[in-house]
Specification:
The chain is mainly α. It has one domain (1-69). Helix content is 89%, strand content 0%. It contains two helices and no strands. It has helices at 2-32, 39-69. Helix 1 runs antiparallel to helix 2 (39-69). The longest helix is centred in the N-terminal third of the chain and has 31 residues, at 2-32.
Length: 70
């Protein structure tokens, strides 16, 4: 039903926003603290950049659906 779709969109949007905030924090820490720029943390950094791109795509997808409905 339409109500279930709205609930799923809200949960997905919330999850994507929280994930975007967390991955942005990782990217910020990597850029601010030079001592974190080791190979192992570099892998985490690139993963966080990829997750940010995925989250932005999810948020834009939900936003485009909302714009079509409105």
């Amino acid at each position: 039903s339409m109500r279930n779709r709205e609930i799923l969109d809200a949960v997905g949007t919330t999850a994507a926003a929280l994930s975007l905030a967390g991955s942005s924090f990782i990217v910020l820490c990597y850029l601010l603290f030079r001592e974190l720029r080791k190979f192992s943390f570099k892998l985490v950094y690139f993963l966080a950049v990829a997750v940010r791109a995925s989250d932005l795509g999810a948020l834009l997808d939900v936003l485009s659906v909302w714009m079509l409905i409105a």
